[in-house]
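Internal ticket - ligand job 309, adenosine-5'-triphosphate:
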Amino acid sequence: MLFDLENVQKSYGNYQALKGITLKIQEGSVGLLGPNGAGKSTLIKSLLGLLELSGGSASVLGFRLPEDTHKIRQSIGYMPENDCYLPSMTAVSYVALMGGLTGMPRSQALSRAHETLHYVGLGEARYRKLGGFSTGMKQRVKLAQALVHGPRLVFLDEPTNGLDPQGRDEMLDLIGDVKSRGISVVLSSHILYDVEKVCESMIMLDQGELIHFGTIAALKADRQKSIVEIETKEQNEQFAEILKARGFSVQQQGLRLQVRLVAPQTVQGLLDAAIEEDIQVRRFMPAELTLEKAFLSLLDEHAHKAPAA
Ligand SMILES: Nc1ncnc2c1ncn2[C@@H]1O[C@H](COP(=O)(O)OP(=O)(O)OP(=O)(O)O)[C@@H](O)[C@H]1O
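stdout (structure tokens):
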């Protein structure tokens, strides 16, 4: 089991950044999603044992927090969002130092640093100082230090930040390769395309609450049932107003209206509205769902459910 969380809470003073997260998730690749301030970094840092929980209990890879923090750190790699190196160090000495900090003997850490830097494509640059590295190289070296000790799980916080499209694809391919070696990946990213490409499942937070977890395929299948797209014969604006007045959640998407059905609303109710109001429907279909649309639909639903914090 990757995580077993029971009512996990974390407060900063009076501010509750995690409001009781309960979930069990199996090993594999997991996307950690949520808008700014949702609590993603707080959750990662809590699960790494860097922050003390304010309430609840958690285990990571079967190790309990906080008793087994040391074992958790040995089994996990962490690629933080921000830069975390000394610019005057060479790549190899830095990655070896990070290996040493996880408890590896010095000589083993050094040989693993060479290996890992080759693995991330920085073999040629390993004796260069980090201060002169490009953004793409810095991201790779951060990945190398997360992998140097042979973890079972890596937390990757915005690993494609600042990368151009080619660099991003290369980073995602590397992450795919990490996965194929049996290492679990938790990917926190605002780029949902990246999450969809790399992850099988996802955890979604909003304002410190868990609003969804499960496989991405199941989420999309579930949302697909409740989101439909409609195109009318030049009556989109009028129909949107009619639907809004009847309590439907409607958005204009290019030439179509996208309608999210919330029980007890039904497709039949939508079509009845068109007939009653003399609206000519040209096209009517389930929305083609990307993770991005599913994400926005979940957030929209949560915003309507939850009182603002
Ligand atoms: N050290 C801290 N002291 C006080 N408040 C904090 C601290 N760290 C985070 N917060 C607050 O806790 C909330 C959650 O922050 P967190 O960084 O976990 O969110 P996030 O989902 O990672 O956001 P982002 O996507 O912007 O990185 C935010 O409202 C943030 O302002």
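Auto-summary: The longest helix spans residues 165-180. Residues 220-305 form a domain with the Alpha-Beta Plaits fold (CATH 3.30.70).
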